[in-house]
Write a structure and sequence with these properties.
Helix content is about 20%, strand content about 25%. By secondary structure, the protein is α+β, with helices and mostly antiparallel strands.
């Protein structure tokens, strides 16, 4: 009886309190403030209109062969306007316990910056049995909250699948992964590429997430030829390669008998679409950054190449899904305000910078061009390092990847006339790259190809 009386008294007191003017429950989030002013509206979680997000999918840190810890690298990208970043370490992810030896001047410089930026309480150090100073590496899940913020910055998990066919390096980046992909091997480079692509695709199927994979720097040690990539069997949204890589040792420009990365892209598009009936390959630009303590031409620095992705949200799945749709462009500095791809029209507009001129070129291949490849002899003047065995692509008709239209200015459009296998746009500016892959490079951009319907 006494318990009932106490409960009834408490209820009566609560009812009386609520009847008083200005009464507020301690945890009543919908109650009005005492002064009658409206409370701040809750944040909206509804996606806005699609916009462009800037990111790099090829980055190395102390977790593999980069010269700095991942936190200082993430800070560099975030502070300079990048929106997403993939740490693509060689055959590992930033997870688990790992200690890193600090045994060179470059590493000691990186450690000093690390301490300055993040404080001695964040940096965990020890001395190994042999006297070498070591630093405990932070896992991605430990440091990501220092940087990530809705609509500002996000990490996307990935890795550089680092395979090898005899002495030939075969590297691919898996992006938006949940688990590490073990290099799949193969009886040929083409088979090795196919198996590793399939492994990433299968993980995406298993997890229900939009994964993608890009073939890295084919001309690195001249290991991967056009012919290795031509037979790659993928569904739409599963085929990518690096048309630009900021590492100065990957030979983007090719040589006298081996195609540049951009020339390789045109051969792949022309033959896959016009002869083999296969899906197009999309072109990615990346940093492949390794060095953050030494800067300049010849160093492997960040800030050289990236992709701009159009998506309503900045989340790993949203960004990856947009890339799979081909809703992105590659850049080394040129910013596009708009890219519109219709059934028969490709239109783009450049965001101009003061004093910079722009040339927009529409590049493509017309039907009827000879698509056959023919052997080429390597000139005697070609100097091949003793520890490498360069591989040779076939030679292809120069009309593959020709300029179909040129516009000097910031806006241009191309309408298919009916005989094109594909058309893509390349923007060349007069602005020198501030830290180029090689001396003399200017800022550029590349759109993805327009493929005619019912090809």
């Amino acid at each position: 009886m006494r318990t009932t009386t106490v409960a009834a008294t408490l209820v009566a007191a609560l009812v009386a309190a609520l009847a008083l003017p200005g009464a507020v429950l301690a945890h009543g989030s919908h109650a009005q403030p005492k002064d009658g002013a409206a409370s701040a509206p809750p944040p909206s979680y509804v996606a806005g209109a699609p916009r462009w997000w800037k990111g790099n999918t090829h980055t190395h840190s102390w977790w593999s062969d980069g010269d700095s810890p991942p936190e200082t690298i993430a800070a560099w990208y975030r502070e300079r306007g990048w929106h997403f970043l993939v740490f693509s370490e060689h055959n590992r992810m930033a997870e688990g316990e790992s200690w890193y030896p600090v045994n060179t001047d470059q590493k000691r410089d990186a450690l000093a910056l690390y301490r300055t930026q993040f404080g001695s309480e964040w940096v965990v150090e020890r001395t190994a049995a042999d006297g070498t100073p070591e630093v405990k590496l932070k896992a991605l899940d430990e440091f990501r909250t220092l940087f990530e913020a809705p609509g500002q910055f996000a990490f996307i998990k990935g890795q550089e699948i680092t395979d090898r066919f005899f002495e030939h390096p075969v590297h691919l980046n898996g992006v938006n992964l949940e688990k590490l992909v073990i290099p799949q091997g193969g009886d040929s480079i083409a088979q090795m590429i196919q198996r590793n692509v399939d492994a990433v695709v299968e993980q995406g199927r298993r997890t229900g997430r939009p994964t993608f994979v890009h073939v890295n720097h084919p001309n690195f040690h001249y290991a991967i030829t056009v012919e290795d990539l031509l037979p790659l069997k993928v569904t739409k949204g599963d085929g990518f390669f690096e048309v630009y890589n900021g590492h100065p040792g990957v030979r983007n420009e090719g040589d006298a008998t081996r195609p540049s990365m951009e020339r390789m892209w045109d051969i792949l598009l022309a033959k896959r679409l016009g002869e083999l009936g296969l899906e197009p390959i999309y072109g990615i630009a990346t940093d492949d950054s390794h060095e953050y303590t030494r800067w300049g031409v010849g160093e492997v620095n960040p800030g050289r190449g990236w992709i701009m992705v159009r998506s309503a949200r900045l989340t790993p799945d949203s960004i990856s899904a947009a890339i799979r749709r081909g809703d992105f462009y590659a850049s080394t500095g040129v910013t596009l305000e708009e890219v519109q791809v219709g059934p028969r029209t490709l239109t783009l507009e450049v965001e101009p910078q003061p004093g910079v001129e722009y040339r927009i070129e529409f590049v493509g291949t017309r039907r009827g061009v000879d698509l056959a490849g023919r052997p080429v002899e390597t000139p005697a003047t070609a100097v091949q390092p003793a520890n490498e065995r360069w591989r040779q692509s076939l030679h292809y008709d120069e009309r593959i990847g020709t300029v179909l239209r040129t516009v000097n200015g910031t806006r241009a459009s191309y309408e298919l006339r009916g005989d094109e296998i594909y058309v893509r746009a390349r923007v060349v500016s007069t602005k020198p790259h501030p830290n180029p892959y090689r001396a003399g490079d200017v800022e550029m951009a590349w759109t993805q190809p327009l493929v005619p319907p019912m090809r």
